[in-house]
């Protein structure tokens, strides 16, 4: 049986904290898959339609309540306006809401607006038909609540089949796909023997790490995630915040002002302006360095409506910038002895902790693969290479750090669609000899959970239901660890962490199940759980033979507004 895929298009979305990028994959005449990013329709600052390869992950609601995602919203954000929502991906998986216009938005709602904008554009590349299958990327370290919200958001905007894959792995798939399309002498990595690659993805909001073993056998490439970094909210936003803070303090000192004597509105506006200044400065210095046209000059910028009537000038040069961000490259000390100063976020801890938690030596890393907008900054690249004691020829820069994650997703979507179709033709997992599966099934991905999933049993330590480092999909039953306390229902708190003793254990949302018939307090409860390959978790309880699915209820991790 031959499966004809030549006319089909496969789609991927990198739903980033700062930028969203969409890709399409097509099969070339020689059977290889080629992935490209596509233009996304949006409107510009004058409300005129425009198409761009990048969709800023920013939502703006105008005075008539009309919602816009993308360029216009980013432009309004650049005026330090409060009429936009951005960086909301950091809050996905929680019930935190913001008011904008006359509506309330959760991070999931914002994600839906972004995905809807993407889906409208994808149609143009799909012969005018609505796209139903898509692969969306998520940070490797997303917990099951964050996964659930992302997948549900995609289903709710009309996608029918949604695959989720880790962002770092996706970028690596794109790179390996490009490599395998090249002749051997042009390849950057030798895939003739098993190769271990540490993928470091530093974007706008997340520092994401995946250590992946890549093995090639003929046309088949296997990706095995051997370690995943824990969720780390560190990205370009934090670098911008730090520089903004330094500049604000300089300004206050110069004018002899006290921060807290300013009114809240003024303070917030000043910080918003300075964050934008910091982001622009970073991107300018970095681009000038990249093009060898940085001559030590400072980046100067006049900020209107900052303080008083006159515009205020801010400047920064590379040396000053590097000094401001130095703290992000300093490892924190032993957690027991940490002072506040040492507890700051940095890029060293996530790397060293991932190696330690999974018992992986630095020496076993063959290559470092860098992706994400922040790795365009040379200092960041050098620091990571030094942390891992790697030589220059062991560092691979993604061809385009802003689009590689998205491109990998369309490639994955192709293989996933093909595998599913082959399985449908041949019966579940029973490959029929006549089907050319090995030819088609070129990429295989094995995934692990970054953190264990635990439940609170009221007395004593939480009980692990799924171990960290567990390969997914996975399912099981936890018998009798919980007992009913109320006749009407049960409430379960989920935690994510390395194990029960983890000091950084995070509480996820609360789950509740209501019994159909009252239960005697003290009745043992069995918990059935299943986690699919996308890390989508389903829980149900079994009390005296009555099976009830658990639903998420109350948010337990409210955070301050951005
Ligand atoms: N030339 C550059 N030099 C330095 N930083 C840059 C450059 N271009 C973009 N950035 C920064 O990269 C970040 C955005 O990167 P990217 O698009 O990879 O993030 P994202 O995918 O939206 O976020 P995440 O992966 O964290 O969800 C922003 O902080 C942006 O300022
Ligand atoms: Mg990203």
UniProtKB/TrEMBL annotation:
Q: Which residues form a coiled coil?
A: none
**InterPro entries according to UniProt:** ATPase_NBD, HSP70_peptide-bd_sf, Hsp_70_fam
* UniProt KW Chaperone keyword: yes
By sequence similarity, the record places it as follows: Belongs to the heat shock protein 70 family.
Source superkingdom: Bacteria
What is the name of the protein in this document? Molecular chaperone DnaK
In alphabetical order, the GO MF annotations are: ATP binding; ATP-dependent protein folding chaperone
Which UniProt keywords are listed? ATP-binding, Chaperone, Nucleotide-binding
């Amino acid at each position: 049986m031959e499966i004809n895929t030549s006319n089909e298009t496969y789609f991927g979305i990198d739903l980033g904290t700062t930028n969203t990028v969409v890709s399409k994959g097509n099969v070339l005449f020689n059977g290889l898959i080629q992935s490209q990013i596509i233009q996304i329709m949006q409107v510009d600052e004058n409300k005129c339609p425009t198409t761009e390869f990048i969709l800023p992950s920013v939502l703006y609601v105008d005075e008539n309540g009309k919602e816009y995602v993308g360029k216009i919203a980013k432009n309004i954000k650049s005026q330090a306006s409060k009429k936009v929502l951005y960086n909301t991906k950091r809050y996905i998986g929680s019930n935190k809401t913001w008011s904008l216009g006359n509506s309330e938005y959760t991070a999931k709602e914002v994600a839906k607006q972004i995905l809807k904008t993407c889906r409208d554009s994808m149609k143009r590349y799909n012969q005018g038909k609505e796209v139903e299958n898509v692969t969306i990327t998520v940070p490797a370290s997303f917990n099951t609540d964050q996964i659930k919200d992302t997948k549900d958001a995609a289903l709710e905007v009309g996608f029918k089949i949604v695959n989720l894959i880790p962002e770092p792995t996706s970028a690596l798939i794109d790179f390996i796909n490009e490599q395998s399309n090249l002749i051997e002498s042009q390849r950057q990595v030798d895939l003739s023997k098993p190769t271990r690659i540490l993928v470091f993805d530093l974007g706008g909001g997340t520092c994401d790490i995946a250590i992946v073993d890549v093995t090639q056998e003929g046309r088949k490439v296997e990706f095995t995630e051997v370690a995943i970094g824990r969720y780390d909210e560190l990205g370009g936003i934090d670098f911008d915040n730090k520089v903004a803070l330094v500049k604000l303090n300089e300004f206050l000192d110069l004018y002899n002002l006290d921060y807290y004597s300013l009114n809240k509105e003024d303070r917030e506006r000043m910080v918003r302006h300075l964050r934008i200044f910091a982001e622009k400065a970073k991107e300018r210095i970095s681009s000038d360095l990249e093009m060898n046209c940085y001559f030590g000059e400072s980046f100067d910028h006049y900020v209107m409506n900052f303080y008083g009537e006159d515009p205020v000038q801010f400047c920064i040069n590379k040396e000053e910038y590097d000094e401001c961000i130095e703290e992000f490259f300093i490892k924190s000390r032993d957690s027991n002895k940490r002072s506040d100063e040492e507890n700051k976020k940095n890029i060293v801890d996530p790397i060293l902790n991932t190696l330690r938690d999974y018992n992986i030596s630095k020496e076993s890393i063959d290559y470092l693969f860098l992706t994400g907008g922040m790795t365009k900054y040379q200092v960041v690249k050098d620091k990571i290479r030094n942390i891992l004691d790697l030589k220059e020829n062991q560092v691979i820069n993604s061809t385009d750090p802003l689009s590689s994650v998205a491109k990998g997703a369309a490639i994955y979507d192709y293989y996933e669609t093909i595998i599913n179709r082959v399985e449908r033709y041949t019966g579940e997992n029973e490959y029929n000899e006549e089907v050319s599966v090995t030819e088609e099934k070129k990429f295989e991905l094995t995934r692990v959970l970054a953190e264990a999933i635990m439940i609170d049993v009221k007395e004593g330590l939480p009980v692990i239901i799924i171990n960290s480092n567990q390969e997914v999909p996975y399912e099981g039953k936890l018998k009798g660890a919980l007992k009913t306390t109320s006749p009407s229902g049960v409430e379960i708190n989920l935690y994510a962490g390395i194990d029960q003793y983890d000091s950084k254990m995070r509480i996820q949302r609360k789950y509740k199940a209501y019994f159909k018939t009252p239960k005697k307090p003290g009745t043992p409860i069995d918990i059935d759980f299943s986690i699919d390959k996308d890390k989508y978790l389903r829980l149900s309880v079994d009390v005296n033979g009555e099976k009830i699915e658990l639903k998420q209820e109350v948010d337990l991790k409210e955070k301050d507004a951005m």
